[in-house]
Write a structure and sequence with these properties.
456 residues, alpha/beta, Alpha-D-Glucose-1,6-Bisphosphate, Chain A, domain 3, TATA-Binding Protein, 6-stranded mixed sheet, 14 helices, binds zinc ion
Length: 456
């Protein structure tokens, strides 16, 4: 498994990600900032609530201090709080120890630079990888220091100050025993909601369900609880609070495309004509809604580091991903499910969700279909598929893998950034075409994988 990845570091705890790696990462992160001209960096360090998070967080802090830098230890908090701290305390960088939405065996690191600027493989993670793999020992530098700070109240105040609910809502929050429960409860109570908490106590064993609202089966208890208690809606957060799930008052799951559409319409009312970024595999719904509301759509590669960079480059007001990560310029351009949740509640105070969904263009979009393909082959296979279509003179986009446009839909195949799979996704406005495109796409991916396997 590749642990130094396009946008973050992630692996199994403790065999791959452990205190030893944590110390090296802390040290190497300071060296990276030194190389970029910051002599004695000030760095925020936080962590989620996984089994190894505490000891790895402590090790990261040790590593940073031993490199002569200053740590602001903000404890166990959602990832967006690290970005928020880095921006508002004008720090030089931030590190969050987190396994995000992954199963409990996982742990890793997310990073940001000044102003919560994204740090990805090319502008930092590779440097850290080189140091960690070099076998070099940490050579302590004097002058390092650390302090502890509870930033949660500031963070809550910041979001609450930007949120105005025009009625009292009763909501259920399911934090899946990740780290977002406590802050979510305090935030939503602060803005005037009655909050019923489900699995808001952090527990790294995730005894109830995986903290990943993108997997529909993790929302079952939330759906039930909303209906049982007659709440207005339910919100779910992933393990580190940057991905959101949503359930309406009938207990129905509201998919990310609908949430994104709500946010698009609202953003274009606040900032008419602004730029909005969506990822390569988003439903055409999003492009339609942006254009209908007078916005300028921009397409990004899949992955939060690509989106965040593109957002800064273009000064976009809002970005969203199919995986229900939302980024607001108003919120410094990082993904924050708590900010997004508060904004969605504000919008829904004045909007009938059923009517809104009815007004959206109707497309049938598949889930991500993940087809196993070895890491070293996945890019080659997708390239072959791209060549196949280029030869046929059909309209394609190769921004991220390949996307083929048909009269009445599209099909996309791309190598996963993170796992040995090719991710297939497709969409059409009618069921028959949808079925046809799906079968065609899966067949072509499988046939090129087989071809490569046979040539081995
Ligand atoms: Zn996450």
């Amino acid at each position: 498994m590749k642990i130094f990845r396009a946008g973050d570091i992630r692996g199994i705890y403790p065999s791959m990600v452990n205190p030893e790696l944590g110390r090296k990462i802390g040290f190497a992160f300071v060296k990276l900032l030194n190389k970029n001209g910051v002599e004695k960096p000030r760095i925020a360090v936080g962590a989620d609530a996984r089994l190894g998070s505490k000891e790895v967080r402590e090790a990261v802090i040790e590593g940073i201090v031993s490199a002569g830098a200053h740590v602001i230890d903000i404890g166990h908090i959602p990832s967006p709080v690290v970005y928020y701290t880095t921006v508002t305390l004008e720090l030089d960088g931030g590190i969050q120890v987190t396994g995000s939405h992954n199963p409990k065996e996982f742990l890793g690191f997310k990073f940001c630079g000044r102003g919560a600027e994204p740090i990805d493989y090319d502008n930092g993670i590779k440097d850290m990888e080189d140091f960690c793999k070099s076998g070099k020992e940490i050579v302590s530098v004097p002058g390092g220091s650390k302090e502890e700070k509870d930033i949660s109240e500031d963070f809550i105040n910041f979001i609450a100050g930007k949120t105005k609910l025009s009625k009292n809502l009763s909501i259920v929050v399911d934090a899946g025993n990740g780290i977002a429960g406590d802050i979510a409860k305090r935030l939503f109570e602060r803005i005037g909601c009655k909050v019923d908490c489900l699995y808001c106590e952090p527990d790294g064993n995730f005894p109830n369900h995986l903290a990943n609202p993108l997997e529909k089966n993790t929302l079952r208890d939330l759906q039930k609880r909303v209906v049982e208690t007659g709440a207005d809606m339910g919100l779910a957060f992933d393990g580190d609070g940057d991905r959101i799930g949503f359930v309406d008052k009938r207990g129905e799951i509201i998919i990310g495309d609908v949430l994104f559409s709500l946010l698009v319409e609202d953003t274009l009312k606040r900032s008419p004509g602004s730029k909005i970024i969506y990822d390569f595999i988003c439903s055409k719904t999003i492009d339609d809604v942006i254009r209908k509301n007078g916005g300028q759509p921009i397409v990004s590669r899949v992955g939060y580091n690509f989106i965040r960079k593109l957002m800064r480059k273009n000064g976009a007001e809002l970005s969203g991903e199919t995986s229900a990560h939302f980024y607001f310029k108003e919120n410094y351009g990082y993904d924050d499910a708590l900010f997004a949740g508060a904004r969605i509640l504000e919008i829904l105070c004045n909007k009938n969700l059923d009517e809104f969904i009815e007004s959206l263009p109707k497309y049938i979009v598949s889930d991500d279909i993940r087809i196993a393909c070895k890491d070293e082959k996945k890019v080659l296979v997708v390239d072959e598929i791209k060549k196949h279509f280029q030869e046929q003179n059909v309209k394609i986009s190769d921004l991220d893998g390949v996307k083929v446009f048909f009269d009445n839909g599209w099909a996309a195949a791309r190598p996963s950034n993170t796992t040995p799979v090719i991710v297939a996704r497709w969409e059409s406005s009618d069921q028959e075409t949808f079925n046809r495109i799906g079968k065609f796409l899966i067949d072509i991916v499988n046939s090129y994988i087989e071809k490569y396997d046979a040539s081995e």
